[in-house]
Amino acid sequence: MAIVRCFGKPSLFITFTCNPKWDEIMRELFPHQTPNDRPDLVCRVFRQKLKCLKKDLLYYHVLGKVIAYIDVIEFQKRGLPHCHMCLILDKSHRLPTADTYDDVVCSEIPNKITEPKLFQIISNFNTHGQCGITFPNSPCMIDGKCSKKYPKSFVDTSSIDKYGYPLYRRRNDGVTFQKKLNGFIFNNRWIIPYNKHLSKKYNAHINVEICSSVQSIKYLYKYCYKGHDRTTASVSINNVDETSQFIDARYISAIESLWRTLDFEMQDHSPAVYRLDLHLPNQHIILFQSNTDINNILTKNPGTKLTEWFKINQLDTDARHYIYADFVRYYVWKPLSKQWLKRKRGGNKVIGRIRTVSPKEGEVFYLRLLLNYVTGPTCFEDLHSFNGIISNTFKDACIRRGLLSDDAEWNHCLEEGLSFKMPYQLRQLFSVILLHCEPRDPLGLWNSFKFYLCEDFSKKISPEPDNQSRITLSPKISRYATSIKF
After folding, report:
1. pTM surpassing 0.85?
2. What would the DSSP string read from start to end of 169-197?
3. 223 and 205 in contact (C-beta within 8 Å)?
4. Would you state the pLDDT for residue 217?
């Protein structure tokens, strides 16, 4: 999310899935072997294909000039690897309106006569499986409805729905095809969005989606980093069904185990995100061996990124022009010598990030607030001082600097949370602010963020957002705060 705060919302979301019938895999199999028998081969071929795809996207800019990206490797239950990618395009290459979506994404069946190869690829890899009333046992069915909202509606032009998600062009042109396996007839309503060039070149499932609204960002990143598939398994001992004994288990396929054994990367992103230390005076973490003399450790007292930042501000006047988070663009941290040195190159390929702190953590929260505004302090005492007056706490220092004179900081705190916190986490944060931070206008704070506090409900049920969020917040407010008037 630090990348999003620096470069803006993602422009494209891409899913690339391995095709076990690629020629590079099939021609290397021994007689009577299948791709399932050679997980090492599947891993190596997919990795090379993924490298080629990233080269097309990041260096040849086939979908536009990419200025930042993230990608994550995952594995299906049947074992096939796939990659989720979020791309942030340069402003000059972004798709500003729905009218331009059709230049990159297609959601219609290709012409079988003029594009036979593409037709074969899309019909094999980019169709959603049968679901709906006639297929209630389909994996995507939840409470009698398709969780992916298939089949889609026919639309003549691409547009954006009220939740900020794109609606791609799916014309009712009468084009259909039938799969031999079960005879189901597919039309444009069942096609998964794709890019013609990428699908034709890589002969695999490549889903290309456009990120049209900032509201969808955190859901995309949550999807990318949702973690591995897990299952609940019961344990039976001596023919006795121990129903109360369960284990939360992870399923690891042969391909995933080979991928990890070969030490292939599980995720990648650019630019690099540099996490900066944050701690109160003399409360930083020190790592040492169990047999080390504690007196030697206390004597050496190795510096942290924060304390060494104070030191270089004392020695280098140029360093005093930057706040803590921007400092990494101009200086590089040397972990062995525990010191900052001036950068010679690469400052545009790194982003500084101070870890997120809850307001209920007290002084650490106010220290983080000061570090986001004050440039060039040479010690913790400089953060306490303002206009010749030394405050006893970081909170008092924030008040003297006018950072807490109104509810602006709590607005900023919630706005920062919007980029990466889910709605239930925002509700918890809002409750913490009511309890610990004493906002001057809690009702105004509520009115500013009530849509985002109940955003998850708006997709499931549709009462008035104001009323629904009150219901959800009531237990939190009764737990954390004494009273609040709506």
Report:
1. no
2. -B------EE-TTT-PEE-GGGBPPB-HH
3. no
4. 58
